Amino acid sequence: MIQVTKASGQLEALSLDKIRSSLTRAGANEEIIDKILLKLKPKLYDKISTREIYQEVFSSFPRYSLKPALMQLGPSGYPFEKFIGQLFTARGYQTQTRQIIQGKCVSHEVDVVAEKPGQRLVIECKFHNRPGTKTEIKDALYTQARFEDIAAAAPGKYAQIWLVTNTQLTSQAIAYGRCKNMGLLAWRYPAGESIEKLIDRFNLYYFLKLGYSEK
C-alpha cells in the first residue's frame, strides 16, 4: 500500500476517495474525476507528498473541465464577452467591451473592440450554455451584415470582423466566414488556434475560475 507524506511530515495510507471528494467539491463530475485519477495513478510512489499529489490533480482539472467551464460563463453572454476581451488582451490587443459604434444606417452595440498598432477588430461573441448547440450560418450572416454597416460609415477604420463562440461552428458558418474573410474562433476551430488551444497557451484558466459579474 502506498503511503503519502502529509504537510506535517506524518505518513498515512493513500486515499483515492479523499482525492475524489476534493475534486467533487471543486465541481468536477464523475467522468472528469475518473480521467484525472487514471492519469494520476502511474505517477504515484511510496511516500509521495500530498502537495505533489494535489498539484498534479488540479493542474489536470482545468483542461478536463474547460468546455463546461466556458458554458458556465452565463446565463447571459456578457461574462463570455469579458472573457474574450481578456483572451484578446493576452494576444497583445487593447480591448473594450460593449462599445456603441455608429454604422451608416443604424448604431450597433459591439461586444468587443480589439486594437493594436495598425489593426482594429470588431468582435461578435456568440455564447451558448446548452451542450450540443452549434453556432450556425445565420449567426455568421448577422455578424457580417452588422460589420458591413459599420465599415460603410468609416471606410478603412476597422480591419476585420471576428465571430467568436464557445461552441463548434457548422460547416456552412465556416465556409461563409472564410469566403467573407471573417476571423473565426470556436471550439476546435481553427486547428491549432481554437478557443481551447488559446486558453491553454495563454493560461487563462484563472479567469474561468474567477468568473465575471453580469453587470
Question: Number of helical segments?
Answer: 9
Radius of gyration: 21 Å
Low-confidence stretches: none
CATH class of the largest domain: Alpha Beta
Which structural category fits the helices and strands?
A: alpha/beta
Reported by name, the CATH topology of the largest domain is: Trna Endonuclease, Chain: A, domain 1
Tell me the number of strands: 10
Q: What CATH architecture label of the largest domain applies?
A: 3-Layer(aba) Sandwich
Mean pLDDT: 90
Biggest sheet layout = 5 strands, mixed
What is this structure's SSE topology?
Elements: E1 3-5, E2 11-13, H1 16-25, H2 30-40, E3 48-49, H3 50-64, H4 66-71, H5 78-90, E4 94-102, E5 107-116, E6 119-126, E7 134-135, H6 137-153, E8 160-165, E9 168-169, H7 171-179, E10 183-185, H8 195-201, H9 205-210
Helix pairs in contact: 2-3, 6-7
Keywords: ATP-binding, Nucleotide-binding
Protein name: ATPase
Domain ATP-cone: 2-98
Question: Mind explaining what this structure looks like?
Answer:
- This protein is of the alpha/beta class and 215 residues long.
- The chain has nine helices and ten strands.
- The strands form three sheets. The protein has a five-stranded mixed β-sheet with strand order 4-5-6-8-10, with helices on both faces. It has a three-stranded mixed β-sheet with strand order 2-1-3.
- 26% of the residues are buried.
